[in-house]
Specification:
Elements: E1 9-10, E2 16-20, E3 23-27, E4 32-36, E5 42-46, E6 49-53, H1 59-80, E7 83-90, E8 95-99, E9 102-106, E10 113-115, E11 121-126, E12 130-135, H2 138-149, E13 161-164
Antiparallel strand pairs: 1-6, 2-3, 3-4, 5-6, 7-12, 7-13, 8-9, 9-10, 11-12
Length: 183
Amino acid sequence: MSRIGKMPIPLPKGVEISIKGSEVTAKGPQGELSRSFDPALSISVNDDNIIVSRPSDNRIHRSLHGLTRSLLANMVEGVSKGFRKELEIVGVGYRAQKVEDKVVLQLGYSHPVEVLPPPGVSVEVVGTNRIIVQGIDKELVGDVAAKVRAIRPPDSYKGKGMRYAGERVRLKPGKSGKIGTRR
């Protein structure tokens, strides 16, 4: 039995789950998410808990068991609390500002880079060097944050660029040069 798949998912107050065949819809204070799962797995709601069970110990059923449970847990957490990723900008002259719905980044290129978030994701700029990506879909929030970070990933020699908040960048030693003997 899958260790992750057999754990029940507790439903917080204010979250409603509706199951129609293999389609699961979660409604909560933050919004509504819907996703279709493999029809072989059975999803049921018992006593404010969501339980995912598999029909057999077949390899494909075992692999889908934990995945389905994790995706459902992310849906429930997303509609109840939401998800957020924070990015930091490090470097002289590097900055971000919010213009209407877009975020304009100046990251050392010859032109400013504009980022337009997809629907369901909001991007905030705190000061000039912090970006917060928020939304209810964990996959979409992580994808947007990764795409913004990929515009200027951290340099491995100076540490300049965009990084996740709390991310440690290991700096490589530079060129050592000649060591003091003359001939």
